[in-house]
Structures are given as C-alpha cells and as structure tokens.
Amino acid sequence: MPEAQPVPAVADTRRLLFIGVDPTHQLDIQRKLNHFNFEFTFCATPLEGIQILKKFATPSFEAVIIDECMLDRDDFKAFHSYQKQPIYNVIPLILQINNPRTEIVQKALENGVYFSLNYPYNASLFKTVLMAATYGFSRHLEVAHRLANFENVHPLMQKATFHVKTIQDAQTVSSVLAFITPDQKHVAIGLFELILNSIEHGNLGIGYEEKTRLTSKGSLQAEIERRLNLPENKHKHVEVSVERFKEYLQFTIKDNGLGFDFSSYLDYVENRALHHHGRGIMIANQLSFDALDYQDSGSKAICKVNL
Fold it and tell me: Please, how many CA atoms are within 13 Å of residue 124, restricted to the half-sphere of its CB?
C-alpha cells in the first residue's frame, strides 16, 4: 500500500495518523469522522509511520491510531521507541481493535498503549476516547510552554493547594504541578487521571456502569457539564495539594464523595479490559508515581514522586 502524503494543515485542522488499518475500513473511518475537521493520514506499517513523523518538525498529529495486528511486528517496537522522543511523546497512541479479546488489550497495555477503540466505532465514541487520550498528553505542552518564569521559582515552593472544579481546571493544575517533577509527561497523565476521577465519580456521582453507558453513547461530556451546574454541586471542588520533602514530592487529591473500592482499579483487571475507561488509576499507579495510596475509603489519593 503506498504511503499517504501529509497535506499542509490549514487553520484549526487536526491531524490523525492511522497505522496498519485495513484499507476497506479507511473510507468508513473518514466518512464517520469527516465532520470533525480531521486531516487523515494512513500508512501500512509502523516503519512508514516513523517516516511520516520525521516530516514534521513539531508534534503535528493529535493522535496515532494503530491497528491491533501491528503489535506483533518488530517495527512496532522501533516506532514506539522513536515516538518516545520528547518532540513526539506527547502524541497519544490509541489501539484499534477489530476482534475484541482481553489478551489484545493486555498486550497493548504492556506496550504502553493505554487507550483503545473497538472497530466499527461511531463518531461520538471516537471523539470521547480521543478527548480522554489528548487531555492527558498533548495539552500538557500547552501549559508547560507558558511556565518559563516558573522554572526558577518552583524550587522555592514548599506547599501549595488548589481548588479544582472542571475538567479544564484539572488539565491546567495537573500540567503545572507536573512541571516541577522529574518526569513531567507521565506525572501529568497520572495527576489528570486521578483529578478527573475525583470530579466525575467523587463530586458528581457518576458511577462506573453509568460512565460506561455514557461513554458508549458519546454523551459523557454533556452529562459532566449538566451535573457541574446542578445546585447541589455548585459548592463542590477537588482539593489538590503538593508538599515538598527532602527526597520526594507528595500530591494529595481529595474529593467530596463517599469513596470507592480502589483496590480493584490499581492493576490490570481482565473483566474491564474491553471497556473504554477504567484504566486511569492503573496508569497512575504503574506509570506516573513512585507510590500511590488511598485514604478515607478512597476519597483521598496520596501520590509520591521521588526527586
């Protein structure tokens, strides 16, 4: 299959790179997603994907969607290694699954692909998964670029507290706090995921099964906005604090909820493997922090990052 040539992006156009997607699926994907103003680039192999990334001096792709059949290829390992470069590692990887099987999801997680879509998918579900992926990754650079003067100030900070109410607040605070850590990208992902959980599940009372239904219908964001504006939720916020110790930074995330059974979310669980959510705590635990503990029945998370 010949490599598709990227077209120079126009204003407000967002690029998506698809690797290894069956040619018979490509037109269907473009048709379903076309009204989102995406620019599509398709290539047959991870090696071709590397060549496409090299053509751009900046991380111009909003996400890379890679077909499940690519995970076993040797050049997928080369692509993943190349994509870890600082200029590209803010681009999230999303796995396209054609035949849902838990072992495929587990293999993806082991290879650092934390988001997945079962084909065929509708536009709303794609948008929901894409938003989940990009909130935790690419938006971090947006804030980090504005923090140049913070570089010399943050070592003086010993303790700080933030009151977070919205997803946009969660984006900004997680990026600012991650900036002071040795591993900005991964800490930003973990902080955002934990704060988002506190907003959705703790403060707004969206249960796991309910989120599954809302995600499948593509109506999760609308429901979050609706609940944020309810009178009983107007006063609620997630308290996010950071304290500097000699050998580590400690982040505390506290919501107004009743807590939850956090123990079943810290690691990979097979019966949730094919769901489009439910991996945030696992990602935070395994990827982002040197220690993650819960208190107050799960309504308070305490995370540590070694210095």
Answer: 10
Does an H or E element contain 210, and which?
Answer: helix 208-217
pTM above 0.90, yes or no: no
Per-position b or e across 69-91, b if 16+ CB within 10 A of its CB = ebbeeebbeebbebbeeeebebb
Within 8 A by CB and 6+ apart from 82, the residues are 50, 53, 88
> With contact defined as beta carbons under 8 Å apart, do 49 and 81 qualify?
no
The two structure tokens encoding residue 9: 């992006």
Task: Give yes or no for a contact between 258 and 219, defined as CB atoms under 8 angstroms apart.
Answer: no
d(CA 130, CA 142): 17
Which single residue is written with the structure tokens 């990026």? Answer: 175
Strand ranges (E), 56-194: 61-67, 93-97, 115-118, 159-164
What are 64's strand-pairing partners? Answer: 17, 93
Question: pLDDT digit of tens for each residue in the chain (307 aa)?
Answer: 444 444 333 334 678 999 999 999 999 999 999 888 888 999 999 999 999 988 876 667 889 999 999 999 999 989 988 887 877 777 888 999 998 777 888 788 778 787 888 899 888 888 878 877 776 555 555 555 555 556 666 677 789 999 999 988 998 898 889 888 988 878 888 999 999 999 999 999 999 889 888 887 778 889 999 999 999 999 999 999 999 999 999 999 999 999 988 887 877 666 555 566 667 888 888 888 999 999 999 999 999 999 9
Structure tokens that stand for 133 in this block:
């992926």
CA distance 262 to 18: 34
